[in-house]
Specification:
Structural class of chain B: mainly alpha
Number of strands of chain A: 7
Largest sheet of chain B: none
Order of helices and strands of chain A: HEEEEEHEEH
Distance between the termini of chain B: 10 Å
CATH class of chain B: Mainly Alpha
Strand content of chain B: under 5%
Oligomer: heterodimer
CATH topology of chain B: Arp2/3 complex 21 kDa subunit ARPC3
Order of helices and strands of chain B: HHHHHH
CATH superfamily of the largest domain in chain A: N-utilization substance G protein NusG, insert domain
Distance between the termini of chain A: 45 Å
CATH class of the largest domain in chain A: Mainly Beta
Largest sheet of chain A: 4 strands, antiparallel
Strand order of the largest sheet of chain A: 2-1-7-6
Shape of chain A: elongated
Strand content of chain A: 25-35%
Helix content of chain B: 55-70%
Largest interface: A-B, 38 and 36 residues
Number of helices of chain B: 6
CATH architecture of chain B: Orthogonal Bundle
């Protein structure tokens, strides 16, 4: 009874599972390393062009902004102190809205149908020559 | 192409589409773009195991194309095909060492991971400057779990098909897949 599944765990199998585990562990460590920098900057870009940069640490009053592309598709972004999210969008899947708040470095919200990306970058100058700088 | 092969391709494609539709009904939270159960991958694995690779490729292309059209729309076809072709390439490579080095579960895990990677690569092509490596850890973890599950299910189905002697002689498992 115990070896009903043992045929799925032979040497080659363990190599594949192990490789993915290593990707998971190393990738998570890098992502956690990216969280440590204070002062995250949200970079909003559309069609690959940067359209706005918001230093989330310096936001005092929450506000909303509307980003629209040439086709008339829109996303409404809410900015609060230290965090940012999409609250409304014209795209059909609403993945960006469901994702909720992001607040730490290297997190991102992507709305593929509207080609909108919100990415958070670490603002600390030390991060440039530290591990975080080369991790990604 | 004889009737039996056409029938197999048709049956597998329609089963994949049903699995695709069922999966959309399941209320699973979307952790990251590209993370999903991937039930339709069961069909690709079954096809790879019981059909010549050209027929299996046809099944994969048809199910990606039709599935994306049924579900998302024209832009979904690009993502679906990118993931499908990359994972198909990986799985047909790993299949060469099936039962020697790798079990179906491991082949499925590898395919699931590369399916997600393919979709993210396509996403990064469409939305420029989008760092896909950030998503690698979560994709690796989800591929381990979902890929193993679909791999075990595929193994059971393949064994059932072989035991039931449903395979046409022309596509019965040969050491040389080029023989048709």
């Amino acid at each position: 009874m115990t070896n009903r599944y043992s045929k799925y765990f032979r040497t080659g199998d363990l190599i594949i599972y192990g490789a993915l585990l290593v990707i998971f562990v190393l990738g998570s460590l890098m992502a956690v390393g990216g969280l440590e920098g204070e002062g995250a900057v949200a970079v909003i870009s559309q069609d690959g062009r940067e359209i706005r940069r918001i230093n989330l640490a310096k936001v005092e009053e929450p506000y909303e902004l509307r980003v629209e592309n040439q086709a008339g598709e829109y996303n409404i972004i809410r900015v609060e102190p230290g965090r940012i999210r999409v609250i409304e969008a014209s795209c059909p899947d609403k993945v960006d809205v469901k994702q909720g708040w992001i607040s730490s470095a290297h997190q991102s919200i992507v709305c593929l149908p509207n080609r909108l990306v919100i990415r958070i970058e670490a603002d600390t100058p030390e991060a440039e020559d530290g591990i975080d700088g080369i991790a990604f | 192409m004889n009737t039996r092969r056409i029938t197999w391709i048709g049956v597998l494609v329609s089963q994949a589409l049903i699995l695709h539709a069922v999966e959309r009904l399941l209320p699973i939270p979307q952790l990251a773009p590209g993370v999903k159960l991937g039930l339709a991958n069961i069909i690709t694995l079954v096809a790879l195991n019981i059909l010549p690779w050209t027929d299996a490729f046809l099944v994969m292309v048809l199910r990606s194309f039709l599935g994306a059209l049924l579900g998302g729309g024209v832009s979904g076809v690009l993502f679906s095909l990118a993931g499908g072709i990359l994972s198909f390439a990986a799985m047909s490579f790993l299949m060469k060492y099936k039962d020697v080095l790798f079990s179906i579960a491991a082949i499925s895990v590898g395919g699931a991971f590369l399916h997600n990677v393919g979709q993210l690569l396509m996403a990064s092509l469409i939305v420029e400057s989008f760092n896909i490596f950030v998503y690698f850890p979560i994709l690796a973890a989800s591929a381990l779990v979902t890929g193993f599950f679909t791999g075990v299910v595929s193994d059971l189905i393949i064994n059932a098909i072989i035991h039931a002697r449903l395979l046409p002689a022309a596509v019965r498992r040969d050491p040389e897949p080029s023989k048709s």
